Amino acid sequence: MKAAKKGQNEGAMPNVAIKTAEKGHTEGAKCCMCVFTSLVLGKLLKQFLINFHPGIFTVYWFVVELYRILKTSVLAHYMLGLALLQRQESAKGIKELEKALDLGRGANPKGYMVEEIWQELAKAKYLEWERSSSKRSWELQSLKEACESALKEKHFLDYSQMEGFVDDATTSHSEQLEALERVFNTAAEADIPTEVPDYLCCRITLDIFHDPVITPSGLTYERAVILEHLQKVGKFDPITREPLDPSQLVPNLAIKEAVEAFLDKHGWAYKID
């Protein structure tokens, strides 16, 4: 009887553990880190417990499988990024969101979450740009004032030594101030919001590309937008009207790299209206 009861308890252990894991999954949604833990680890833990057998090799498999999922899971990097941002660890959070975005591009429609990732990444990157832009602006203004002060002192010194050439000294000083103004205006240009170049924007949304794909006709669209068009409107190119199937969409890596280069230089373009 004791042996039979013991066998029943051993068989029930995985079920109890599974229910506990599922309960933890629900309660874990109260904060980003708990959501990350429950969503990413919950499924793996459940699978592990269903196939539970004592032994070091099972534990080893669990660790290896956990590492594989964490390394390649879009959701894992996304939730970890949100958790790090909430903890004010902006640099690490942005890095995780960027990993999630790279992994998420080209995912199948059911698991596609590039737009959600982009929204969070754009907000974080824009806040980062605002902080660094304010710092750069203050540094440039301080340096400009110091240069203007130095030029003013030089002007008075030259003025006292150039008797009879007052007009020349004044003209030279004005030209130097104008040149200084141009130099600092040029230095500040990258932080002045302008228009995003048309070739970096989707023809349908008019927003900067997040996940650009190119069609056989040579036109580039935002992946989520063109997929929605093909699903809800019809399987044809919205501009050329030529037949188009989702399988014909190819990532436009050249535009993707151009967008990344533009955003690296012009962080203000991350702003979401």
From TrEMBL:
Name of the protein this chain belongs to: RING-type E3 ubiquitin transferase
EC nos: 2.3.2.27
Biological process (GO), any one: cellular response to misfolded protein
Top-level taxon of origin: Eukaryota
Classification via CDD domains: RING-Ubox_CHIP
GO molecular function: protein-folding chaperone binding; ubiquitin protein ligase activity
Record keywords: Repeat, TPR repeat, Transferase, Ubl conjugation pathway
InterPro entries, alphabetized: CHIP_RING-Ubox, Ubox_domain, Znf_RING/FYVE/PHD
Reactions listed under catalytic activity: S-ubiquitinyl-[E2 ubiquitin-conjugating enzyme]-L-cysteine + [acceptor protein]-L-lysine = [E2 ubiquitin-conjugating enzyme]-L-cysteine + N(6)-ubiquitinyl-[acceptor protein]-L-lysine
Organism: Glycine soja (Wild soybean)
Pathway per the UniProt entry: Protein modification; protein ubiquitination
GO terms under cellular component: cytoplasm
One Pfam family in the UniProt entry: U-box
Domain U-box: residue ranges: 195-269
Top EC group: transferase
